[in-house]
Amino acid sequence: MREKAFVREVGPRDGIQMVKIILPTAQKLAWCRGAAQAGIRDIEVTSFVPPKVIPQFADAEDVARGALTIEGLRPSVLVPNLRGAERAFALDLPLVNYVLSASEEHNLANVRRSTEDSLQDFARIAAVRDQRAGRRVALGAGVATAFGCTISGAVSEARVVEIAVRLAGMGADEIIIADTVGYADPGQVRRLMSNVIAAVSPLPVICHFHDTRGLGLANVTAALEAGVRGFDASLAGLGGCPFAPGATGNIDTEDTVFLLEQLGFDTGADVEQLVALRREVESWLPGERFSGAIARAGLPKTYRTPAKAAA
Ligand code: COA
Ligand code: ZN
Q1: How far from 64 is each of 105, 169, 300, CA to CA, in Å?
Q2: 49 in ligand 1 pocket by Cβ < 6 Å?
Q3: Which of 37, 115, 190, 269 is 20 to 30 A from residue 263's alpha carbon, by CA?
Q4: Residue having the nearest C-alpha atom to atom 7 of ligand 1
């Protein structure tokens, strides 16, 4: 039995926040369906922000509702505030991911309040969640700009750990540590992720890396060494925060699955099917910048997919 590690596809959320085209709802759902068919169980399918802030997500309810009908999928959504969380609760989504920033300056630019105010907002969201009848909604709590900020520069590692501990204490079910602007390096990742994991144990801790400076997959390897077993990624390496100057794409989904499988982890995902889906997604987004090495070079002949390995 190989140890499991998972890749969460965030393309339909992070991946399309900055693209020029507004994708039709049907294509967003085809993306989710294709990823699920390729073995990706976790997908962040949309973002519950005001349409005037990011027009791409004006159809968020329709996408979330559609994603809930896809077999084998555990859809999640991003929310920046209580209002967004209430929209997600109304649809009874199984997982809702909140985001705040460790950098005060980025938090102000992104959600127009202090980090402390965002922490208080999370406490209110958790209280509303706890009072709901029916199925318990899991809350993911994301700490953006955890490795540095393009607006303010260095971010204190002690502050990131402190924020993670407070989110855990307020009722988060998982912590997501995000390198929003691609500043992280493997040494920093190994150190910070070890400290966060130790501080919030036994809560699961997930990493969200951007490959802006080419260290995305090196950072995945470092996070694995620290004990992280879940990673956000986007097909074709799309992605970026519109409120973080200089932000570019997430780590590429197919390459991340390839890396994890090569290191002996079971992701449940099929790289070739993901590459085929990525070609389709690329055709919907003319003029965008795509990245990813496996889509360019192909899998090595020595690659053994789980199915082939078992045969
Ligand atoms: N969904 C829909 N509408 C919302 C909303 C949400 N999540 N949050 C607020 N609104 C509405 C309010 O009801 C209000 O509507 P009204 O003008 O009709 O009364 C209006 O938007 C302004 O609300 P307010 O609370 O003053 O928000 P704001 O203007 O201070 O903006 C955020 C705060 C958090 C909503 C906004 O900064 C945001 O969406 N940021 C997210 C940015 C992002 O997605 N970044 C990338 C991912 S990290
Ligand atoms: Zn991101």
Answers
A1: 30, 28, 36
A2: yes
A3: 37
A4: 84
CB contact burial 98-110 (16+ within 10 A = b; e otherwise): bbbbbbbbbbbbb
Tokens of 294: 């496996």
**Mind listing the pLDDT tens digit for each residue in 210-268?**
999 999 999 999 999 999 999 999 999 999 999 999 999 999 999 999 999 999 999 99
**180-201: pLDDT as tens digits:** 999 999 999 999 999 999 999 9
Measuring CA to CA, how many Å separate 285 from each of 11, 222, 225, 242, 249? Answer: 12, 32, 35, 17, 14
**Confidence class for position 310, pLDDT limits 50, 70, 90:** low
DSSP state of 46: E
Give the Cα separation of 197 and 164 in Å (integer): 9
Indicate if ligand 1 lies below 6 Å from the C-beta of 241. yes
Query: Could you identify the residue written with the tokens 């490795």?
Result: 147
The fourth-level CATH superfamily of domain 6-310 is Aldolase class I (3.20.20.70)
Greatest CA span in the chain, whole angstroms?
Answer: 55
Residue 134 pLDDT level (bands cut at 50, 70, 90): confident
List, in sequence order, every beta strand (DSSP E) within the chain: 6-9, 42-47, 74-79, 95-101, 138-144, 174-179, 205-209, 230-233
CA distances from 30 to 128, 160, 182 (A): 32, 36, 29
Q: How far is residue 116's CA from residue 107's CA, in Å, rounded to a whole number?
A: 10
Q: Residues 24-75: pLDDT tens digits? A: 999 999 999 999 999 999 999 999 999 999 999 999 999 999 999 999 999 9
> Is 112 close to ligand 1, i.e. is its CB under 6 Å away?
yes
Token couple for 200: 């919030």
